[in-house]
Amino acid sequence: MSFALFLFILLAVTGLVWLVDKYFLRTKRQKEARQPWWVEYSISFFPVILAVFLLRSFLVEPFKIPSGSMIPTLLVGDFILVNKFAYGIRLPVINEKVIEIGTPQRGDVMVFRFPEDPSLDYIKRIVGVPGDKVSYVNKRLSINGVELPLKADGEYLHKERMTYSRRYLERTGDHEHAILVEDDAPASIPFVKQFPFRENCTYNSEGLSCTVPPGHYFLMGDNRDNSSDSRVWGFVPDANIVGKAFFIWFNFSEPSRFGSFQ
Prior knowledge:
Elements: H1 3-28, H2 37-58, E1 60-64, E2 79-83, E3 89-90, E4 97-99, E5 109-113, E6 121-128, E7 133-137, E8 140-143, E9 146-147, E10 150-158, E11 163-172, E12 175-181, E13 201-204, E14 207-211, E15 216-220, H3 230-233, E16 236-237, E17 241-250, E18 259-260
Antiparallel strand pairs: 1-2, 2-17, 3-4, 5-6, 5-17, 6-15, 7-8, 7-14, 8-9, 10-11, 11-12, 13-14, 15-16, 17-18
Helix pairs in contact: 1-2
C-alpha cells in the first residue's frame, strides 16, 4: 500500500468519525460525559491529517534519494522537496491530471512512478520530450541531431569506494548541470528490457537512438554509467509523473547540503 493511499484512508476514517460525532453521537451524550477515546483521538488528528494530505498532494512532497544514479546533482541520503503542481494538478492516489498548468521541459529533474512497478518512485533528468529524437552515442547526448554542449569540469571523488569519475558540465534545455562519465565503462547499453514503444529505439555497440512517442518522456541519470533509466527500461508516460524536484533540505551524512539545484 502506498503512503498516499494510507494517508487517504486515515483521513477518510478520522473525517467520518468527526462527522458521526458532530451530527449523531454528540446530541445523545450527556453534557458531563467525555468523548470516547477513539472519537477524541480522531477529532484531534483529523485537521492535522487533512493539512498534511492537502500539502503533499497538491503543493510539495518530501522524498529521500535512495541511490547514486543522480550523482553529483543529488547524493544518496539527500532529502528533497518535489513541486506537485508544476506539471498540473492531479487527483491524489489515482494521479489523474485535472488541471493543466505546465509541461515537463528538457533538463528538469523529475520524480515519477516507475513504469515497471508504479508503487516505486524514481527520480531522473528529462532529456527528451514527446517527438524528440534522443541519441546517446559514444557517451555523447544529442537531441534532434544536435549534440549537447559539454565541457570538462575536473574529477569527482566517490568517497565510499575511493575512485574518481570524470565530471562534465552539460547543457540540457535551460539547465547547465554536472554529469559523471566512467572512462572504462562500455558505450553500449547493457541489459536492455522489452518495453512499450521499444520499436522506437535502435541499439548498437556505440549506444542508442530513440524517438520519444506522444505523451511520454525520455529520462537519464546524471551518473551516466551507473544509472538504470530510459535507455534500459523505456519511456515514462505522462500518467506516471509525480512532480518536479527542486530543493535539497537535509542530508544526515552531509548536513551542509541545503538549497535549490538544477
